[in-house]
Automatic annotation (TrEMBL):
Gene3D superfamilies: 3.10.50.40. Its EC number is 5.2.1.8. Residues 25-116 form the PPIase FKBP-type domain. It is an enzyme of class 5 (isomerase). One of its GO terms (molecular function) is peptidyl-prolyl cis-trans isomerase activity. It catalyses: [protein]-peptidylproline (omega=180) = [protein]-peptidylproline (omega=0). The keyword Transferase does not apply. It comes from Triparma laevis f. longispina. This is peptidylprolyl isomerase. It comes from the Eukaryota.
Length: 116
């Protein structure tokens, strides 16, 4: 895992992509799968039946901090694993409705589909 400067979240490129990388303010569409490190349970996946790829504006706080910063630089076709500590994820409260415990560390696998 590689450090993201200024953050506790770390990243690992699992598959290289092509073209320019995601920059702050880009509109991005990704496939995303989130797993709670402590339990090994998947709490969300855009690849599950009935789910759709997720679109958001990168680097502006529209998603949790670890994801928001961890996606920057990704290229179309790239798959990246993020390890996001609680304080850059859902914090001390967690997100019980999704099965994320208080102080839970998250693994997110992101696959960049489009960058605009």
């Amino acid at each position: 895992m590689e450090a993201i400067p200024g953050y506790a979240t770390t990243k690992k490129i699992e598959k290289e992509g092509d073209g320019p990388g995601i920059a702050k303010g880009n509109n991005v569409t990704v496939h995303a799968t989130g797993v709670v490190k402590e339990t090994g349970k998947t709490f969300w996946s855009t690849k599950d039946p009935g789910q759709q790829p997720f679109s958001y504006q990168a680097g502006v706080g529209g998603v949790i901090t670890g994801w928001d910063q961890g996606c920057l630089g990704m290229k179309v076709g790239e798959t990246r694993l993020l390890e996001i500590p609680a304080h850059e994820g859902y914090g001390a409260a967690g997100f019980p409705a999704w099965g994320i415990p208080p102080g839970g560390t998250l693994f997110f696998t992101l696959e960049c589909l489009t960058i605009q």
